[in-house]
Amino acid sequence: MAEKLTAVKGMNDILPPDSARWEWLEGKVRSLMGLYAYRNIRTPIVEPTSLFVRGLGEVTDIVEKEMYSFEDRLNGEALTLRPENTAGVVRAVVEHSMLYEGGKRLYYMGPMFRHERPQRGRYRQFHQIGAEALGFAGAEVDAELILLADALWKELGLKDVRLELNSLGQPEERKQHRAALIAYLEANNEVLDDEARRRLHSNPLRILDSKNPLMQAMLEQAPKLMSFLGAASLAHFNRVKDILDAHGISYRINPRLVRGMDYYNLTVFEFVTESLGSQGTICGGGRYDYLIEQIGGKAAPAVGWALGVERVLELIREQGQTVDIPAPDAYAVIPDAQTLPAALRVLTALRSAGVSVQMHAGANADGMGSMKSQFKKADGSGARFALIFGVDEFAQGCVAVKPLRGSKTGSAEAQTLQRLDDAAGWAHVLRS
Ligand code: ATP
Ligand code: MG
Fold this sequence. Notes:
The chain has an eight-stranded mixed sheet with strand order 1-5-6-11-10-9-7-8, with helices on both faces. By secondary structure, it is of the alpha+beta class. The protein folds into two domains: 18-169 and 229-318, BirA Bifunctional Protein, domain 2 (2-Layer Sandwich), CATH 3.30.930.10; 330-431, Rossmann fold (3-Layer(aba) Sandwich), CATH 3.40.50.800. It is 37% helix and 19% strand. It starts with 17 loop residues before the first helix and ends with a helix. The structure holds adenosine-5'-triphosphate and magnesium ion (MG).
């Protein structure tokens, strides 16, 4: 035998029946996005590397060490598997002048790629669902996006998801804070770890995000960006909070919340749970009013979030919530191959009437397989009914319908004969 091939480390197959949970989640997202009038956008998985370098910032975890970048062998182009999709959406919005007639509300779903150490809730190919509102400056859109995410948690039955909120202000305010922060960190140089020393002058804000326990006490006392915010930034932040308060959405202000990409300003937020260990952030986002211009578009404000599908599904599982795994309504038992062509026409009629039927397929050179083995397969399929296309009944234009679940008392007796020409008539019984 040839050597077995396996998937790339950190990249997972999503198989049935688990894939049903993914479809269930995606279905909920689609209808909710429709209710909030967000429209679907689909952009390529591969983008020019420069998009992410320019968009995310050079001194970010993603650009420094997590991107799958490669050179196109045929034309030498520098390409990258998208590590996130805000930059791609902005590129598309600019490329197609989508903001020409006003703001756009968009959402996407799909795989992202980051070369990280695989562990629970952290993969190299993972999936995000994201919502972006582009061309809107007002705090009400920040709030709308948070309400949308909150509505999604409710729709999915998630409990104990905490909202953390912060404001990063505007670039000028950050510059002043940055100077104060660098001075403070320099004064505490002996407590800094290597990573922090390296980032001291390139991206000191990110040091606040460090999880190193030895630095926590020192970081608690560091100058807070919030105290450098001017009136306009504070007013924006207050409006977001007022709307959330009016909706009874609770949140915690986390002055150390800075997010991993450089493109954020003003509002940033994360939805966090304690139930997933250290990979507890299920969704993160914020305002990115300067990204569109940075990617070559006409300056326009924007705000958005992205959630991690694997983490959300894991949380649903962790909280013991069950998702219906689909089973066919009926399983077609076909004792003799001679009735197969005609039986298939009945199955097609049933499917047109909305009944899902699994056809028995066990054919080998000598026929369809024994009744016993066919019934075993019918049971295993999870179907509620078996349709038995017996030769004699079929010759008289009938098919036997036998319940497979529920009726414990003599299910054999529960068997009925149905006239084939009335397939649509008994379809609703099979479906209900
Ligand atoms: P983390 O701090 O956990 O690395 P992040 O700040 O890098 O997260 P974002 O770039 O904000 O994450 O992505 C939004 C969401 O996507 C995260 O909140 C998380 O749920 C999910 N996510 C990010 N990276 C991964 C990954 N490698 N595997 C699975 N999910 C991920
Ligand atoms: Mg990360």
